[in-house]
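Write out the 3D structure for:
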Amino acid sequence: MRSTPGSAAPRRGRRTALAAAGLVAALTLTATACGSEQDEADAKPGGGTSRAADTGDTGGGEGGLPAGLADQLKKHGIDVDQWKDGGWKNWDRDKWLSEAKDFVNPVIEGLWKPDRMKSAKEADKTVTKDAAADQGATDPEPAPVEAVAEKKPYHENAAPVGKVFFDSPEGSMVCSGTVVKDVNHPGKSNLVWTAGHCVHAGGNGGWYRNIAFVPSYNDYGKSEAELANATTTEMAPYGTWWADWASTSDQWIKGGSESGGDGAAYDYSVLHVKPEQGAKSLEETVGAALEVDFSAPSATEVPSMGAWGYPAAPPYNGLEMFRCVDRPGRLSLSPSLPTMYRIGCTMTGGSSGGGWFRVVDGETKLVSNTSIGPLENTWLAGPQLGRSAEAMYQNMSKTYGGR
């Protein structure tokens, strides 16, 4: 499915280039500001919601699972031992868990091995049916911006960025995600921001399974040949973090589709994660987290935005982190839906869910995430994060953040 092409936007001038350089520099500083234990100790936090079920945090359950989670699986007619032994591969669409309260994601230690991570396919970017249609607030289609490889090692230049892995009926899939601050638990965040379509299939499906986040994936950007016999530590230097709770918007659950649908403007998600091994928080482990900007400024008010992620569809292979920085424009899919941000960018599938950042008073903040784009891979669009997104985030932080 192709979106209707529009007129190309004029090339950006020197002012935008300087703003782009400032955004890149600010992200680097933010990512490395918490590099030492002392820095971590001194770090300070800068509508409709869907809530994951309380899966419990006490032992004593069957199959080595927390008792609350074992009970939750049983509630849906799922045998705990069979699930752990591969029963999660059985996708009965009539029984696909789809409601907000139905989320279950038990840790299967060792499931995401290096080869399994490398073989995960990109989650196709949702593609709008007629993305260039003038709904009264759509700007001309931006000129493509060639994605630039992020500097290595990633933990020194873009520490909050990583990959989101999950299983779907089509097999193992991959998106991108960002470690974000937890305003109610400063310095100890376990929250990851990504796209709704990276955790839930939308109106015609349910929650994906085995959802996990790997920060600074392939930290040194090694090639496929160099990673032929890679260890888990090489691929996941800061460990594998499993989503024990997840939230996305009601609009995505009800109206999301492979082409974006009415849920595209609400295509965002926040995960609460826990380590496969270890006790420190995600923020303490990676040494960085970004504040989320819920002010939803108009694209006309922002001189530049940058999108970061791990594109996996050709010509990329998902092993390296890339970024695009551009002056954002507006994309309106319908007069009844919020306007989305749009930038020129050549990143492909796999970059979905990756954070969009802007600089506010010298601080880099997450302002959106990659959601949709055309099959030609010339631009990306992401939702504005307003009151509904903030309510989802606050609910996750207050209800699950300290667990």
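The first helix runs from residue 14 to 32.
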